[in-house]
Amino acid sequence: MHSLANFIAPLRTDRGGQVFLVLLAIIAIAVPILHLATPDSSALHLSSYSVTLIGKYMCYALLALAADLIWGYCGILSLGHGAFFALGGYAMGMYLMRQIGTRGVYGDPILPDFMVFLNWKELPWFWHGFSMFWFAALMIVLAPSLLAFLFGWFAFRSRVTGVYLSIITQALTYALMLAFFRNDMGFGGNNGFTDFKELLGFDLHKQSTRVALFLCTAIALALGYVICRYIVSSRAGRVIQAVRDAESRARFIGYRVESYKVWLFAFSAALAGIAGALYVPQVGIINPSEFAPINSIEIVIWVAVGGRGTLYGAIAGAVLVNYAKTYLTTELPEVWLYALGALFVFVTIFLPKGAVGLLNRKGAQRA
Amino acid sequence: MNCGLGLGAWARKKSANAFFPPSRKRGRELPIFHYPSFIIKQAYQRVVHPARVALCCCIALLGASSLAHADAHDDFLAAIAQLPAATYTDKNEIVKRLVVLQQPGTKRILQALLEGNLYARTVDGKVFIAKEQATSLQLTDATTQADAGLAESAGFEKIGTNNGLRKTLRGAIAQFDLNNADDDVRLASVKEMLRSMDEETVAILRSHVAKESNRTVKTAINVGLAAADIENTDPAVRVKAAETLGKSLNPDAYNALQALLTKNADGKFTEADDDVRYAATQAVSRINFWRSVYGFLETLFFGMSLGSVLVLSAIGLAITFGVMGVINMAHGELMMLGAYTTYVVQLVMPNHIGASVLVAIPLAFLVSGIVGIAIERGLVRFLYGRPLETLLATFGVSLVLQQIVRDLFSANNRPVETPQWMAGSWQLNEALSITSNRLYIVLFMLIVFAALLWILKRTKLGLNVRAVAQNRAMARAMGVRSEWVDALTFGLGSGIAGVAGVALSQLTNVGPNLGQQYIVDSFMVVVFGGVGNVWGTLIGGMSLGVVNKVLEPYSGAVLAKIFVLVALILFIQRRPRGLFPQKGRAAEQP
């Protein structure tokens, strides 16, 4: 119980976090009720499209949380976080592909459809084990965090920082995108994975499975938030913020800056991977365009819009920007890129602390 | 560019043509007094000599019978007039006479006769070259080459040919070309003759080769003759032929040699003679060696042209990022604007595609430069010292620019034409040809690079740019208006991006996503070369291009690119400041 108290203690002073967790709890209770318990004709009824949409936003929020953890608190601007998200998604996708079994178009009990199509005779070695959920779940966390660990190990130890780091993270996700587009990689090439059937034996097209997934996402987001909050308010979190503000000084005092950075980076990548894994069964597809550098940059703008270095700001930013995206791309598709571009410019010049910063300032004036 | 010409031949042809326009090629009125002696000599060799050779050749072949006539043209007219009524034997003689006479248009008549397009008017026996169109004929007067309009085909009779005559005709046409003053035509005719070798053509070529002055043509004939000699009964001749074939890079020659080294079903070599086999082995290994040398040169050239594209796209960034320290994510879109400028220029002047690219270069520089200055004044200057924010803001600009282009020109790719003078390729030999547009890209990159270096090192602006980059406060104290310098530097980098866009418009699709494809690459080149160092960018870009192309045959294009990216990521870990890091105080800045 002691350790649990440790986790909850930082939340006592975290007003934004309290508001967020309460809102999340309300949504997590209200959405399933509105979806399942109300008749289709009712004005209060939430369509399954909306449930999926809100679930998607929550995945993005988790991803933004991961990005804010390293950018807002450690000053590492990763332009490759989309890669970790996509890796988690691919790990989940591989599990879901194996679950299709004989229900695929070609009906091969072992090989997924695209391999039959490519005339492959047996499963590549890295596909083994993905028929078991526990293994896939392990990979969802391990694959992104291992990559991040290796990448960070090299990058941080040779003191690649700032803009250089941003550019090579972008190169990383770009290289991965090119790699996953190749058919020979064994990840479905251009088309990626789709046409999933079931997860842990539950039919993915059923209402109840969707709601369960929705709840899982909500819980993951809440847990992610609590853990991130715990990390940043712990002793290590203070060191991390010291690294952000004066890296050399922190090093001279005697902290092993690289270790802090590497572990935080790997944890953030794992978080992104979990977000990706929750995202894939809800949207029903994963393909290499998730690795596109622009996706990673969009993640950063969510954080910037919401306000970096606050955690709840990142979540708010992710939801706001994505809601605007959904609205604009359906209602006024040609305006969306203008709006996003203007948002980048506006936020960086006029709102360096994001929307949360604006609210806080208003609050401070009133007080 | 001229296909199938050796370097020397090309240069000589150029010099000859510069002094003597084609109409005077026959060398009747050489303005001898005005040119230094070596030119006269060259002109004699190039223009007068072949004509003589041609005449001599014909005399030797056919005897001097009809050449005695004072007026060759009358004789020519008479010969044509005899054609319709002649027997096949007579026709043979007439064809041979026509070859000797060397009158203009003869080749066309022979060609028409060979293809069955030569007709005689039944009324007066006048000969026409005709094209069949349903029931009528599109006529051309055979002797004057003048257009004679349409006529009913009923009033005409085709001048017939038989196998023997067609053979004579084919030989005659090739011979006719063999005596042409133009090296290209001779080469083509030799190649035509080599395609169907028989004793007669071998004889003709053997007699011609001694008189041939052009090296390329001579080599082609020698190789052809050697390919014929390889089946000779005398082993000594075969050895010699194998040696000659070994000097050629022609695939046919290679195959002929390989055939000597294969074994029959009963385990014996097709070639019985040991010496010949030895010569053939030597020749094959020689060809293989040269092929791999030229293959390597070709890869190197491809790498250099790819490297040039990389350098072009990165060099503007080397200014904005390297010198000013500003991350401009809209750099790719500035290139895109340059490419679209080319497109618009071509829309404005559709009849002058050749000149349009040259017009587009300064215009693209202006368009992208002005947009760049606008970005700097409106955005970047508020964010100096905050590189990550600059990165995000300029990325926003890039999205807006993309969407503007989409709204103005549609989301589809726009067609940009390649000017005639950039098309084609330059065949150095049978194993190595260089595509002209790649060559131009390399040259263009070098020019842009030199110009940029000149601006940075030799102009007042360049001095100011370097001063502000090294120590802003001190430069300001010395009276440099650093705000102006910032704007102009950014404009310069952006303008060069626009110029790079013009080059890219000739290589890739011009669409709203053009910039995005190059942005990661350009940043990698700058970081690899060393920030703040234009030479580093040049060397970095070139070496990345070459490495990419060297890897490509082993791994495929995409995997090569991935390798290079991963290698770069690892390289930056080892040398975070690039190949050529800045030294001194400037290096201390973030």
SSE arrangement:
The complex is a heterodimer of chains A (367) and B (590).
Chain A: H1 2-8, H2 15-36, H3 48-74, H4 81-100, H5 113-117, H6 133-157, H7 162-181, E1 193-194, E2 198-199, E3 202-203, H8 207-233, H9 235-245, H10 247-253, H11 257-283, E4 285-286, H12 293-306, H13 312-331, H14 336-350, H15 354-366
Antiparallel strand pairs in A: 1-4, 2-3
Chain B: H1 7-19, H2 37-62, H3 72-82, H4 88-101, H5 106-115, E1 118-121, E2 127-133, E3 136-141, E4 147-152, E5 156-158, H6 163-178, H7 183-195, H8 199-209, H9 215-229, H10 235-246, H11 251-261, H12 274-323, H13 331-348, H14 353-378, H15 387-409, E6 425-429, E7 432-435, H16 436-458, H17 460-470, H18 472-477, H19 482-505, H20 514-529, H21 534-555, H22 557-574
Antiparallel strand pairs in B: 1-2, 1-5, 2-3, 3-4, 6-7
Please explain how this structure is put together.
The complex is a heterodimer of chains A (367) and B (590). In chain A, α6 runs antiparallel to α11. Chain A is built from 15 helices and 4 strands. Chain A has one domain (2-293). Chain A is mainly α and 367 residues long. Among the domains of chain B are: 182-272; 294-419 and 434-588, Orthogonal Bundle (ABC transporter involved in vitamin B12 uptake, BtuC), CATH 1.10.3470. Chain B has 22 helices and 7 strands. In chain B, the strands form 2 sheets. Chain B has a 5-stranded antiparallel sheet. A two-stranded antiparallel ribbon of chain B has the order 6-7. The two termini of chain B are 50 Å apart. Mean pLDDT of chain B is 77; it is low at 1-48, 50-69 and 585-590. Classes of the chains: A mainly alpha (367), B mainly alpha (590). The interface between A and B is large, with 42 and 40 residues.
